[in-house]
Amino acid sequence: MKTNKDYYFSYLFRLWKDNGSGDWRATLQNITSGAVHNFPSAAALFAFIAFRMLDQDSTDLGEEWLDMTTQSLKHLPYRDPSVELDD
Q1: pLDDT value at position 2?
Q2: Where are the beta strands (DSSP E) in 34-80?
Q3: How confident is the model at residue 45, as a pLDDT?
Q4: C-alpha distances in angstroms, 30 versus 3, 62, 67, 69, 74?
Q5: Other Cβ atoms within 10 Å of 50 Cβ, number
Q6: pLDDT for 20-54, tens place per residue?
Q7: CA 80 – CA 70 distance, rounded (Å)
Q8: pTM for this structure?
């Protein structure tokens, strides 16, 4: 049985615009474990958060992460215009 603690996540959020490409980048650092997650776009960040909210374990997805992120964007109300989606 899941407890409230299982549904509480605390992150330090960093956001910046890449000078070279002009793309927005982000990192989330888990306050408890210290694990850092890097995101190449706002869309990838939002997808990560959506996975966490849907009770998915998005911390160890490895190389599948970007493919899953792109696929999950089709179901999010926000779409990053810099990410092309296959419909």
Answers
A1: 59
A2: 36-39
A3: 87
A4: 19, 17, 23, 19, 26
A5: 17
A6: 888 888 999 999 999 998 988 888 888 888 877 77
A7: 10
A8: 0.56
Pair 47, 72: CB distance under 8 Å: yes
Distance CA 26, CA 18 (A): 10
Alpha carbon distance 18, 16 (integer Å): 6
**AA letter at 32:** T
DSSP 8-state class, residue 22: -
User: In the chain, where are the structural domains located?
Assistant: 4-75
**Distance in angstroms (rounded) separating the CA atoms of residues 68 and 12:** 23
Task: Identify whether the C-beta of residue 32 lies closer than 8 Å to the C-beta of residue 10.
Answer: yes
Tell me how far CA of residue 71 lies from CA of 44, 60, 65, 82, in angstroms: 11, 17, 10, 15
